[in-house]
Task: inverse folding
């Protein structure tokens, strides 16, 4: 199953150049399937490009858009230290305390100790289940938002430009009769199907 | 539920064909017997050049005081100063390298289309087919031109460049044929049967490829080679040039023209074999067009090259478009008029 990764940078005016893609002016769509994603992300961070998406396309899942802020959140989540160490320490302490209780004859009944152990067993089982739940969580929770390509094309602003002279040239005479005849013929051919022949 | 129908007088509707080529922008209008053309290049001026030097040329000025010489003047000045012109388009598509390109291009197109105020204007503009030998999408290019035309208040449709040649040149065959547009950035191919496209594709090898390869072989700037090609190039008959260096350039250009044709013919055969399911019973014409096909002897060279191959289709004749520089714009105009007729206007 081939997955294609497209990096869509919407911010205008950046000159993007990293291994695996030709130098490009933004806004742009870049195929980064063959690029090292970590290099791409660190390049984007270093150049200060924040408004970008990565579009993942494949035949089974269709198109999925991962937004820049989600990518940053994922990175942050990955960097959080694990809680397991703390849990292990606390369990170890509990084990020691129970050991002491068992070795001393301090009048605590065996039933009481058994209850404590049962409670610990339940606690450990619940701990495993909650860890599994964390692993099963999808990386991207939000449904992909498909944007219209039109918003990606830069706005045209010629209000600050003025033109002097006339750049048109080579004015060639042509007969309009042939054009009208050809257009009528083409219209008949192309619209034949629509009119049911 | 009655729908209000706005009555549009025939004179208030203008149809346009706009050929958006790498080297030229060409425009044909239904209300004019003239086809207008401009070089699709510009040259950003150095700040030391004074305004008085610009009195005879076309240029664009922005509010920061920067000047861009546009059209063929840009080409002339670039040759004088030994500079490379900037191109809004590269290899048949909008160039991602030129920051100012889209705004300058918008002004050039506005100037080319002319006045459409108060008119209902419909335009077909040319787009290349997806290239089979280069991984560049035409989507961005197509949408940029759509936005330019929208900003000028024009209704627009994109049409494949080579299909436009079929519309322009193959009416007598009821729009059946093979059209090849050898442009500057790309070679576009369309195989059509009765007005319906059976196959379209493009290759990233065309006139610029010839110039670049010839320039690299001779250690020159591609601009200079382009200039020599347009002045002296012919692929048959005796060349009247005496200068040794120019002769060497023309010799290199000759071989690269032949290599380009050979490459394109091979691709046509391969693509036809792999992708065309339509049974084309009768022989069809091959129409050759585009600026790169302009040198004398190009069609003869094409005939010579293609005769060396066994073809999966039968050819009735190989001919040049009536005017290779304006065929696409004319074909686009035909398509626009046809579409507008279909809309009942």
Result:
């Amino acid at each position: 199953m081939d997955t294609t990764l497209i990096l869509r940078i919407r911010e205008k005016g950046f000159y993007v150049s990293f291994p695996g893609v030709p130098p490009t002016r933004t806004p742009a769509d870049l195929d980064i399937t063959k690029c090292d994603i970590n290099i791409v992300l660190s390049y984007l961070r270093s150049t200060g490009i924040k408004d970008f998406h990565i579009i993942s396309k494949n035949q089974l899942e269709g198109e999925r858009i991962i937004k820049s802020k989600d990518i940053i959140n994922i990175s942050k989540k990955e960097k959080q230290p694990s809680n397991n160490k703390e849990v292990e320490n606390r369990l170890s302490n509990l084990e020691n305390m129970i050991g002491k209780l068992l070795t001393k004859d301090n009048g605590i009944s065996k039933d009481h100790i058994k209850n404590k152990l049962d409670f610990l067993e339940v606690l450990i089982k619940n701990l495993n289940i909650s860890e599994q739940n964390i692993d099963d969580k999808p990386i991207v929770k939000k449904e992909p938002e498909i944007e219209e390509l039109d918003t990606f094309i830069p706005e045209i602003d010629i209000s600050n430009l003025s033109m002097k002279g006339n750049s048109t040239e080579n004015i060639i005479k042509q007969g309009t009769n042939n054009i009208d005849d050809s257009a009528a013929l083409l219209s008949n051919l192309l619209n034949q199907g629509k009119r049911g022949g | 539920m009655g729908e209000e129908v706005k009555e549009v007088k025939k004179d208030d509707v203008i149809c346009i064909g706009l050929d958006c080529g790498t080297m030229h922008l060409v425009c044909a209008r239904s209300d004019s017997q003239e086809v207008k053309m401009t070089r699709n290049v510009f040259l950003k001026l150095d700040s030391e050049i004074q305004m008085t030097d610009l009195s005879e040329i076309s240029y664009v000025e922005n509010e920061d005081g920067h000047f861009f010489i546009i059209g063929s003047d840009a080409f002339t000045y670039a040759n004088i100063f030994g500079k490379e012109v900037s191109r809004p388009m590269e290899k048949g598509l909008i160039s991602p390298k030129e920051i100012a390109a889209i705004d300058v291009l918008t002004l050039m197109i506005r100037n080319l289309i002319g006045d459409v105020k108060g008119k209902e204007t419909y335009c077909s503009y040319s787009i290349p087919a997806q290239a089979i030998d280069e991984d560049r999408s035409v989507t961005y290019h197509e949408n940029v031109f759509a936005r330019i035309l929208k900003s000028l208040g024009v209704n627009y449709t994109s049409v494949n460049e080579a299909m436009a040649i079929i519309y322009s040149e193959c009416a007598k065959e009821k729009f059946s044929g093979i059209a090849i547009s050898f442009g500057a950035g790309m070679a576009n191919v369309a195989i059509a049967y009765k007005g319906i496209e059976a196959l379209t594709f493009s290759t990233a090898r065309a006139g610029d490829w010839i110039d670049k390869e010839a320039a690299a072989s001779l250690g020159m700037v591609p601009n200079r080679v382009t200039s020599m090609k347009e002045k002296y190039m012919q692929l048959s008959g005796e060349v009247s040039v005496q200068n040794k260096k120019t002769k060497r350039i023309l010799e290199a250009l000759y071989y690269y023209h032949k290599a380009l044709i050979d490459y394109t013919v091979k691709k046509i055969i391969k693509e036809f074999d792999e992708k065309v399911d339509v049974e084309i019973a009768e022989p069809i014409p091959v129409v050759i067009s585009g600026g790169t096909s302009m040198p004398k002897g190009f069609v003869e060279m094409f005939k010579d090259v293609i005769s060396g191959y066994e073809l999966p289709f039968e050819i009735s004749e190989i001919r040049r478009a009536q005017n290779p520089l304006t065929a696409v714009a004319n074909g686009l105009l035909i398509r626009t008029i046809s579409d507008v007729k279909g809309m009942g206007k």
User: Anything to note?
Assistant: Chain B has a mean pLDDT of 85. The longest helix of chain B spans residues 244-275. Chain B touches chain A through 64 residues (CB under 8 Å). The radius of gyration of chain B is 21 Å.
